[in-house]
Fold ABC transporter domain-containing protein.
Amino acid sequence: MSRVVAENYSPSRDSVSPPFYTMDFNSSHLHPSLSASSASATSPTLGQLLKHVGDVRREATGDGSETPVHQVLELGSTNLEVPRSIPFVLSFNKLTYSVKARRKFKFNRLGAATDTDPVGGGSLFTTTKTLLNDISGEARDGEILAVLGASGSGKSTLIDALANRIAKGSLKGTKTLNGEVLESRMLKVISAYVMQDDLLFPMLTVEETLMFAAEFRLPRSLSKSKKRLRVQALIEQLGLKNAAKTVIGDEGHRGVSGGERRRVSIGIDIIHDPIVLFLDEPTSGLDSTSAFMVVKVLQRIAQSGSIVIMSVHQPSYRILGLLDRLIFLSRGQTVYSGSPMNLPVYFSDFGHPMPTNENRTEFALDLIRELEGSPGGTRSLVEFNKSWQNLKHSRNGGSEPDRGGLSLKEAISASISKGKLVSGATNNDAISPEFNGANFCKSSLERDGSAVEKVLLKFKKNAGTVRDSIGCCRGHWVYLSYNVLEA
Ligand SMILES: Nc1ncnc2c1ncn2[C@@H]1O[C@H](COP(=O)(O)OP(=O)(O)OP(=O)(O)O)[C@@H](O)[C@H]1O
């Protein structure tokens, strides 16, 4: 994943609505004992961490009261007949995202400057770089949509664009959920974003880590026993039963495997059972078996009624079998959009039949790379994809799922009644009455993120006597560490 900051590029793509995981609490903010290399030495226990959750919330409000754990969004009518399954379709249409970048000049032998990008817009010294160009598609609940492409093709940018992590105004195009424009506030409430790497406390077990996430992120009104139930259900869903009592570990202490660790990170983010889940390269750095198990978990999450959208570099044959829809990108443009099954016929119609037994994604990526290096680039494939999409659309007539006449808010309410966004349990007992129907809980993420920030500042002021540290884990997740080193 590459990140180049252009002149009109905000410090983070999330400048619109900075979730706290983007607060870069680099190691200088953290007590040395919490840095990746030495965290295990003084990693706090679960008991210590939980004890201080309440303290931080109280500290953050400044008036001694506890910070509310969740926000409530009014959804209107509560008297809903809950359908057996509520379909969700996230559609995006003509997403286009450009940034200004410095114009590069080359000097010839005579010392005259030539522009290396004469076609780009912009001024004398800047050029406009289009990172996403006219990207359309859709993702449905129960399915995994995977974004593929070579390094730098725009996969992360597309995931960011869909997850509202791009500065407002610079992204053109539309995003709808069940045909209704998707407000960023709504998306924030119903979705989760899993980053590539997470910082976890090495001395906590898998179960303790998830329990702390439940304590921190689920509504306070949900009893401990229900939170425990949610954690157990999650452990099952993540395929972590055998590792539940194993510590996370680090370089110095053996702990869970890389794949298990990745699943724990996902678990932290989905503790509230989001309707839409975004993941940026969840399989990167994993061996093929671990990568397969991670995607298998994602399939289970999708099948529990979520939309899963992920980027992936080069999925194995087995992983490909778990993906429902693919978007191949080349330099920010779509070169294929459809099911993995249609890849052979697509490329055959394009005049490049796939040899049997060839890995489909490898073949596609190789051909795309070859075209990128050719004089016309991938233009012919981009155009071919457009006509292929039109043909597909005219044949299928753009089939819409039956939403039982529910508006988006009603569909979300109905989902919550079935356990989404609160406890994740499908059993209604697990939902506290205040969350039934009309309201839904927003994760305490941002609120607690800023709470942690405030407390951190306060602690910094008192650094002379006490060195307290707060560790912020990337990926929707906060741990508090309370280490009194020099009393
Ligand atoms: N703010 C920016 N200004 C200029 N160029 C940018 C900016 N952000 C990203 N890019 C460029 O956009 C392209 C797409 O980046 P992106 O991170 O989406 O690629 P990717 O497909 O996810 O790559 P990888 O697989 O390596 O993670 C890259 O060429 C990158 O250098």
